[in-house]
Amino acid sequence: MGHQGEIIWDSTKPDGTPKKLMDVTKMKNQGWSAKIALEDGIQSTYQWFLEHANNYKEVKI
Fold this sequence. Notes:
By secondary structure, the chain is mainly α. It is 33% helix and 0% strand. The longest helix is centred in the C-terminal third of the chain and has 15 residues, at 38-52. The protein is flat and about 45 Å long. The mean pLDDT is 86.
């Protein structure tokens, strides 16, 4: 994605749950199935972000 900035990791903060799993069994039993592959969804979401990034203000932390 071309990120050139520095990433500063604060190791004093929690880093989230070590493992997160989603069980879609109930949804599949109701007839649901993904229509977009994960990689395609990530690519299209990132493309949308690039096209709309100028609509948002920069947030400085």
